Structures are given as C-alpha cells and as structure tokens.
TrEMBL record:
Pyridoxal 5'-phosphate binds at residues 105-106, 178, 206, 235. Its EC number is 2.3.1.47. Substrate binds at residues 18, 130, 352. CDD domains: KBL_like. It comes from the Bacteria. The modification N6-(pyridoxal phosphate)lysine is found at residue 238. Residues 38-380 form the Aminotransferase class I/classII large domain. This is 8-amino-7-oxononanoate synthase.
Length: 385
C-alpha cells in the first residue's frame, strides 16, 4: 500500500497542494469565504446566469413536475420530456440535426472518442486541449498525437503521416482554450480535417453563450458553417449557468452515441429540473442579449486597463484573460497577495500549463460591474505581476 499521508505531505511541501473553499451563497462576484467578503474573478459563470431568478424559478417548477432525481439512465427510464425538449432546443440553437445530453462535459468528451474510435485508430489533438479530451485517448485505446497549439500546418503534417493507413481519425480541439482564452483556427483545421477525411470535433465549453451574435459559440463567431465541424460539444455548467453537457451533430452521429457511448449509456440522466433550468437559460440568452454585450465591454475594459499598466496579457478576446507571470512560485505568491487584498484570482501552474507559463487566470462575468473590474486592475497594478 502507498503511504498516502507521506505523499500528501510531500505535495504540500512542494506547493502543489490543491484545496477547496467553502462558499456560503450562490455563484456571484461577491463571495463570503471564512467570514470575509471577496471579489471573485475565477468563475465560468460568464453571463451571471447561475443564480438568475428565472433559472431558479424554472428549476423549482421542474422539481414540482418531475421530482428531483432522474432515477435511471436515459436508455432505461430516466429520459423525461424536459430532457427531450432541451435536446431539441440545443440542436436548433447550434444549427444541427440533433443533440444528445450527457451528465458532464468530461463524460461527453470521453463518450465521443470511445464511440467513434477503437484500438489502432488515431486521435489528433491540440497540445493545449482540456484534460477531458486528452483523457479520452485512454478510454478509446486510440493512438494519441498532439499537434502544436493552434497550428493547422502541424496538424497537416500529422495527418500526412497517417495517409493510406485506412484507420479512423478524430481531430479534436477546444473552441476557446480554457487556460489561454484564445480561439482555435477552426476554418483552417476544418479544411485540413476534411482533406484527410478525418472527423473534426470542437469542444466549445467556453464559447457557448459567450461568442457569436446569438451566443451559439466559436463557429458562429467565425462564420463557419456547422457542416464543416461534424461533432460539436458544449457544456451547460458555464455560461448557461446550470450543469451537464451535450453533443450536437448529424442524426447518424447522435444515434451512434446513443448506441455505443458508454458514458451515455451507463450513467444516471441529469436531474430533469436542471434540464428545465437549462431550457430557461437558452430563453434568457435571447431575451437578455445585453448580458453578452456587457461581458465583452468588460473584456475590453480589462484589456485596455491592463495594457496601460504594462501587464503581460495573452492574445485573448474572450472572458478568459490570463496575466502571464512565468514562475510558478511567483504566480502562487501573487494569488495569495490578491487574496489578502480581497480578490479571488487563481494561480495556474504546470502541469496544467506549460513549464514557465504560470499565470493568474482572470475570468470576467456579466455579473461584474465596471467598478469591480477597475478595482481588480488597481490591485494588479499595485503588485506588478
Ligand atoms: N471541456 C472544457 C474545455 C472545459 O473547460 C471543461 C470544464 N472545465 C470541460 C470540458 C468539462 O466539462 P464539465 O465541467 O461539464 O465536466
């Protein structure tokens, strides 16, 4: 047996210890933690929907109609009218034939790879993809290759090396990269994938609700036709303020997932009231476009303020605005000092980001007000990160 206590002590000494904070109230910029009021810049609740009264009311109505637990997997007896309607609405929202709910984005990513690929097939991924996409390689047994971040030419080289191999190829990429906030070059990736007859999958967790005229995500933002990206994954726990995820695509793709994605088949469906709240979130997207406008105004405000302060920003036009620090110890120290000053801004270190790429990961939300963005800038300016 491993000496777990000793391993944990070592981890703590090496400054690699992960810990949680207990929140006493809803997800919001203002948090009370250990009796202290803090201003949080670390949530993925980009539109401030997680505690929106309309979502709360929809969840309550859902619970009254459906109860709480789904009671079974979708294919057994857990697929309610609420789930079914949400799937239809997500398909329409993303311009796809069909959509399929998964209980989490992590499971959706594992499920797609496992349903489409087998041993000996190929999974090509951007080097900075989210951990759940990378982990999918282990689940499906395909050979994993990682191409250089955002580099369609490197992808083309990887694809050329597989020419004539005759096996299935899945290329997967984040739409918006979760630690950098930049966008994948989807038109170029789509071209490369189509030329090699490979699947292209986009994980749009951080763009859904945020990018595009209607909030439909990276493809809408880039003006890319849905047919050029056969597999779209979106999550409901970020800008849509709820929980769970979906895959959208062709009728045949979705039926294939239902038949063979183990993370779909062998798990309990998300609670129906959550599906009702997610349906309400889609309606709020339409009714309150000012939330998206406000969010992008915050992004602009933060970037121009940070540029004036000489902070090392990354090329991101999204609510994910990392401030590059470099050294991991220094990033942790800065995050601690921000906490002392009343700001929650996490330090992100290797291995989550490349060696020498430690950063403060600032995320902005429509729930912030301008004054709060300015106060963060003031605090950052005082620390000279
Ligand atoms: N993909 C990306 C890019 C993510 O950032 C996340 C969550 N952080 C996931 C997938 C996983 O989604 P979920 O939290 O619903 O499991």
């Amino acid at each position: 047996m491993r000496d777990l206590a000793a391993e944990l002590a070592q981890r703590r000494a090496g400054d690699r210890y992960r810990s949680r904070r207990v929140l006493e109230g809803p997800q919001a910029p203002r948090q009370t933690v250990d009796g202290r009021s803090l201003l949080a810049f670390c949530s993925n609740d980009y539109l401030g929907l997680a505690a929106h009264p309309r979502l709360v009311a929809a969840l309550k109505r859902g619970a009254e109609r459906y109860g709480v637990g789904a009671g079974a997997a979708h294919l057994v007896n857990g697929h309610s009218r609420a789930h079914h309607a949400l799937e239809e609405e997500l398909a329409a929202f993303t311009g796809r034939e069909r959509a399929l709910l998964f209980s989490t984005g992590y499971m959706a990513n594992l499920g797609v790879a496992q349903a489409l690929l087998g041993r000996g097939d190929h999974l090509l991924q951007d080097r900075l993809n989210h951990a759940s996409l990378i982990d999918a390689a282990a689940v499906c047994g395909a050979r994993l290759r990682r191409y250089r971040h955002g580099d369609d030419q490197d992808l083309a080289r990887c694809l050329a090396a597989l020419e004539g191999d005759g096996r299935e190829i899945l290329v997967s990429t984040d739409g918006v990269f979760s630690m950098d906030g930049d966008l994948a070059p989807l038109p170029a990736l789509a071209e490369r994938a189509a030329a090699a007859r490979a699947w292209l999958m986009v994980d749009d967790a951080h763009a859904l609700g945020v990018l595009g005229a209607t909030g439909a995500g990276t493809l809408e933002h880039l003006g890319l036709d849905a047919r050029r990206v056969p597999v779209l994954m979106g999550t409901l726990g970020k800008a849509l303020g709820t929980a769970g995820a979906f895959v959208a695509g062709s009728e045949a793709l979705i039926e294939t997932l239902i038949q063979s994605a183990r993370t779909y088949i062998y798990t309990t469906a998300m609670p129906a009231p959550v599906a009702e709240a997610a349906r309400e979130a889609l309606r709020v997207l339409v009714d309150e476009p000012e939330r998206r406008a406000r969010l992008h105004a915050h992004v602009h405000r933060f970037r121009s303020g940070a540029a004036q302060l000489g902070l090392a920003l990354m090329p991101s036009q999204t609510p994910i605005q990392p401030v590059l620090v470099g050294d991991a110890g220094r990033a942790v120290d800065l995050s601690r000092r921000l906490l002392q000053a009343g700001f929650l801004v996490p330090a992100i270190r290797p291995p989550t980001v490349p060696e020498g790429g430690a950063r403060l990961r600032v995320t902005l939300s429509a729930a912030h007000d301008e004054d709060e963005v300015d106060r963060l800038l003031e605090a950052l300016g005082g620390l000279h990160p």
